[in-house]
Amino acid sequence: MTSTLQSHVIAGMLANDPLLSGEVGLTTLLVVLIKVVVAFVGLLLSVILMVWFERKVIADMQNRFGPNRAGPFGLFQTIADGMKLIFKEDLMPARADPFVFKLAPFLSLIPAFLTFAIVPIAGSFNDGLDGVVTILGQQTFMQVADPQIGILLFLAMSSLAVYGIMLAGWASGSKYPLLGSVRATAQMVSYEAALGLALASVLLIAGSLSTNAIVNGQAGFRWNVWMTGLVPFVIFTIAATAELNRPPFDLVEAEQELVGGFHTEYSSFRFAMFFLAEFLNTVTMSAIIVTLFFGGPSGPTFGLTNWVGVYILPFFWFFLKLLVFLSMFVLFRATLPRFRYDQVMDLGWKLLIPASLGWFLLLVAVRVGSDQGWNLVATVLAAVAGLLAGAFLLILSIRASASKRAAVSLPGEGT
User: Tell me, what's the pLDDT at 284?
Assistant: First the structure.
């Protein structure tokens, strides 16, 4: 009796999924295994298609053919490149730390898989269905797991990914990979703060850390992108691009300066794992953006309650939204020039973090005013006035700091 109670308490702490609300039997384990395998295979296929899609779109923009040899329309080119890397010679520098050098690629790859586990990809959220589906007679959600701390898990995994890059540069025993990894640490810490503050605005509106509850709250086109006032979405997207080390924030692997960046000394399958992690993170982050701001798989089901309305249409809406943001990241790579490092730091610390914090405080003021019955117009005006005063003081401090730096003469200057 005690063991049964303990299992129920643990299941309640770990997940909101109705699959784990009762006794955990063989069928339950089979459903979990099916969801894990589908998520794993789906992510790998998405990476293959994403690499092909990015190369094709950029080639079209540059009046080139792109991949067109391996398979129809070059679809198998990514597989061919992966096989080539697998059979290449695996090298390790003489000064490398063997254990950490081998561990680093896994620390970059695993967080992407774990983050995708909390993303709902199907299930109807209309008419009070809450995204519940039936698989093998068991009610569950169309996501691998829905822990009560789902968003905190996402933040933890996004922070953990930097360890793979940092350790890869440190363990290589070379100064150029180390410079690339140090850049990665500074950049990801800088933009993690802005990303977290933008995410706090979503949590304020949703009132839950569960991704399923966040999607459920956006049913009926009550998307957080406009419920939060658009600003958190813009900040989150910019910060996510910097977290992914994608252009124009790809200073971590700026080949003009770092000879390839943190993975310079890697070859063969270990290099392929970093390459795989980059595109996995792109797909996963796009799915997180869709989940947080655009309702995930929620959308019109046209009154259908059969398998078409529960599985096909929700997945279609999710895939369509996901494709929009994947295309956005491709266009970023094709059109935007790389920032200078000082510009990256200025954007993160002097603009995104203050803007995300100020907007969050504005939303808090509106929420508190609404709960307390205050005049909404007066509350908003008072909050905006406070934010403008804070912005004015911030600008003054930045200008004062810049003038002091300009006044300090460098050694040997003026002689």
Answer: 93
pLDDT at residue 355 in the model: 92
Tell me: the pLDDT tens digits for 10-54?
454 445 788 887 777 888 889 999 999 999 999 999 999 999 999
pLDDT at 356: 93
Judge whether 241 and 249 are in contact, CB under 8 Å: yes
Three-state SS string over the chain comes to CHHHHHHHHHHHHHCCCHHHCCCCCHHHHHHHHHHHHHHHHHHHHHHHHHHHHHHHHHHHHCCCCCCCCCCHHHCCHHHHHHHHHHCCCCCCCCCCCHHHHHHHHHHHHHHHHHHHCCCCCCCCCCCCCCCEEEECCEEEECCCCCCCCHHHHHHHHHHHHHHHHHHHHHHCCCHHHHHHHHHHHHHHHHHHHHHHHHHHHHHHHHCCCCHHHHHHCCCCCCCHHHHCCCHHHHHHHHHHHHHCCCCCCHHHHCHHHHCCCCCCCCCHHHHHHHHHHHHHHHHHHHHHHHHHHCCCCCCCCCCCCCHHHHHHHHHHHHHHHHHHHHHHHHHHHHHCCCCCHHHHHHHHHHHHHHHHHHHHHHHHHHHHHHHHCCCHHHHHHHHHHHHHHHHHHHHHHHHHHHHHHHHCCCCCCCC
Q: Annotate 193-218 with b (16+ C-beta within 10 A) or e (fewer).
A: bbbbbbbbbbbbbbebbbbbbbbbbb
pLDDT tens for each residue of 331-355:
998 888 888 888 888 898 989 999 9
The residues with which 140 forms a beta bridge, in sequence order, are 133
For residue 241 the two structure tokens come to 């691009």
